[in-house]
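Weekly modeling sync, notes
Attendees: AB, CL, MP (scribe)

Item 1: holo prediction request
CL wants a bound-state model with adenosine-5'-triphosphate before deciding which constructs to order. AB pointed out that an apo prediction alone won't tell us much about the pocket. Agreed to run with the ligand included and paste results into these notes for async review.

Input as submitted:
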Amino acid sequence: MRGASVELIQVSKRYGAALAVDAIDLKVPEGSYCCLLGPSGCGKTTTLRMIAGHETASDGNILIGPREVGHLPPAARGTAMMFQSYALFPHLDCLDNVAFGPRMRGVDRATRRRRAMEMLSLVRMEGFAGRLPAQLSGGQQQRVALARALVTEPSVLLLDEPLSALDPFLRVQVRAELKRLQTELGITFIHVTHSQEEAMALSDLVVVMNGGRIEQAAPPREVFSRPETGFVARFIGGHNVIAMPGGSLAVRVDRMRLSPRLVDAAGEGGLPARVETVEYQGSFVQLRLAPLDTARATEVFAAVPDDVFAAQPFAVGDVVTARWAEGEAHPLRDGQLPADVPALEEIAP
Ligand SMILES: Nc1ncnc2c1ncn2[C@@H]1O[C@H](COP(=O)(O)OP(=O)(O)OP(=O)(O)O)[C@@H](O)[C@H]1O
């Protein structure tokens, strides 16, 4: 199997007056694992379905490899789709479920059974070839569904919330399996999820969507360390969004430094705030703070390493100053403030 790149150029989807996907541009490199991440209704599934050809784009171009595929039916695009519900045929055993597609395409019995067996081995289900879906666990059914999608040798595998029907334990197992397969096969995976943890764990490229648009498309570490918009900072989590005179900033909660507030310190920088909650979390202590100036943020969080906290503990009701090193504050693209927000002193590290 070989991967192919996927490129969307100014792709839109309208349902009547509603714009589900709004002129998005995206380039997914060949052989990469890409997650489309965002809240319900942001247009992830619609985007996936347009790539698969189950939905026609209202505008724009879709390329798979060098080919424009907008006019091609799903079966001619070199993609395969795996759905949230495994949708295995209940009356067929695993081998026949996987061999079903090749059978429909007229592949002879011996070849299709050999191919199906290879795919079952790939997902480590060769020992279950003769079982009916009802005799399998959810995770096992999911693997068979994966084998069934891969038997067509797609260059791009499209996965719509493939883990959401699994319990948390299985979800982590199947997630690791998906990553292993993608790395081993070298084909392109495009995976829709609303779980930031899933996207972080799997992706080479995370595409954060909101309201039919792409907020940010970058490797997970970059999205987490340098969110470009307030939406990304909040959705990915682990960040405070703080209003400043020049616009809003994102600062990671584990980069906040707390010190006792010196009430009479002249020209004191930082963000004075009252401690609202203190929660011990094992390796760190999480504090929720209410800034005294609510125009800057209504609440911020600080994750303080447990040893740092033990050396200088704070209690609920204490007033502290939160600071961060200059390089830890990332300006947000959509962070312009209304003109009436008061100017504040410079933040000192
Ligand atoms: N067939 C349709 N007809 C009309 N509107 C639709 C149709 N399909 C999707 N939409 C609308 O388009 C928008 C994007 O839907 P989409 O299913 O792509 O979102 P999503 O991000 O995948 O959400 P979810 O995580 O809930 O599946 C939503 O507002 C949805 O209501």
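Recorded for review: The radius of gyration is 25 Å.
Action items: CL to compare against the apo run; MP to circulate these notes.
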